[in-house]
């Protein structure tokens, strides 16, 4: 039987033969690749891989751990030592911990001195005269009258001197001033005068409660202006008792009164 006949008969090579052939082929291919790489590296076409820099490691021995400090046992002074115990070491004694100090408190300050300021009482309101107090008061166009009223009590013996009718002069001036009439009407409503006279001067100008200044607003100035520009003999006319000034013709018209036991018209010009 020939070789061709053996191949056709289906016989196969052994396994070790096949492994040898494969190993030879792998070695040949690897040798060719290594030779090709070395050749290209020599020609400068391929740079060889750089090796990583070396790592320097320094070994240091750690320092020895110191032993823990020796804490002596506390010695209780009050507890009796046993008879067979060794004498205590008096060189070092640990005292029991003292309690913490109490927290500091701020010093108590005396209460501040409060100055007591007395409150001044409010001035009283203007006095409202009754009809009996103004019964004998001097009015416009009349001469002397005998009457008494508040601080202006008197027999009322004073009369007009010549052509001096200061009552009519003042009454006409107050009626012609709308601001003065409004101030007197407001005071009459506030004091509930209801047609009775409000006294504004009794030898001194009076203040109406907490109103700023003495005398009603604008009334004192209007009267002082008329008296200041009156003739000299009229300003020095001697008067006694009350004078009544009416600001309207009706029965409920507002009225003011001024006067003292003995006075002159020039006294109305005195400044406090």
Describe what you observe in this structure.
Keywords: Membrane, Transmembrane, Transmembrane helix. The chain has 272 residues and is α+β, with helices and mostly antiparallel strands. The radius of gyration is 66 Å and the shape is elongated. The termini are far apart. 26% of the residues lie in helices and 9% in strands. Among the domains are: 40 residues; 150 residues, no CATH class.
Helix and strand layout, with pairings?
Blueprint (H helix, E strand, L loop, with lengths): L2 H6 L6 H28 L123 H10 L2 H13 L6 E5 L17 H10 L3 H4 L2 E9 L8 E10 L8
Parallel strand pairs: 1-3
Antiparallel strand pairs: 2-3
In summary, what is this structure?
The protein is an alpha+beta fold and 272 residues long.
User: Strand percentage, roughly?
Assistant: 5-15%
- Order of strands across the main sheet: 1-3-2
In the predicted model, the low-confidence regions spanning at least 5 consecutive residues are 1-10, 143-161
Can you summarize the main beta sheet?
Answer: 3 strands, mixed
Number of helices: 6
Mean pLDDT, all residues:
77
Number of strands: 3
H-E string: HHHHEHHEE
What overall form do the CA principal axes indicate? Answer: elongated
Helix content: 25-40%
The structural class is: alpha+beta
Please compute the radius of gyration using only Cα atoms: 66 Å
Distance between the termini: 171 Å
């Amino acid at each position: 039987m020939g070789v061709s006949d053996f191949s056709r008969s289906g016989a196969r090579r052994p396994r070790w033969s096949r492994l040898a052939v494969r190993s030879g082929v792998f070695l040949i291919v690897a040798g060719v690749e290594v030779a090709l790489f070395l050749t290209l590296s020599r020609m400068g076409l391929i740079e060889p891989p750089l090796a990583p820099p070396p790592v320097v490691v320094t070994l240091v021995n750690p320092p020895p751990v110191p032993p823990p400090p020796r804490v002596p046992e506390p010695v209780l002074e009050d507890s009796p030592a046993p008879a067979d115990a060794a004498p205590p070491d008096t060189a070092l004694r640990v005292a029991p911990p003292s309690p913490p100090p109490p927290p500091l408190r701020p010093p108590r300050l005396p209460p501040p001195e409060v100055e007591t300021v007395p409150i001044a009482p409010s001035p009283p309101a203007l006095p409202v005269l009754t009809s009996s107090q103004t019964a004998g008061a001097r009015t416009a166009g009349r001469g002397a009258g005998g009457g008494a009223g508040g601080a202006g009590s008197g027999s009322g013996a004073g009369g007009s001197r010549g052509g001096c009718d200061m009552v009519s002069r003042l009454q006409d001036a107050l009626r012609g001033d709308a601001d003065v009439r409004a101030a007197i009407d407001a005071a009459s409503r506030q004091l509930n005068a209801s047609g009775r006279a409000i006294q504004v001067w009794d030898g001194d100008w009076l203040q109406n409660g907490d109103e700023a200044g003495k005398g009603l607003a604008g009334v004192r100035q209007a009267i002082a202006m008329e008296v200041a520009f009156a003739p000299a003999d009229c300003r020095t006319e001697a008067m006694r008792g009350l004078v009544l000034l009416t600001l309207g013709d009706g029965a409920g018209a507002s009225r003011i009164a001024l006067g003292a036991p003995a006075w002159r018209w020039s006294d109305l010009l005195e400044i406090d």
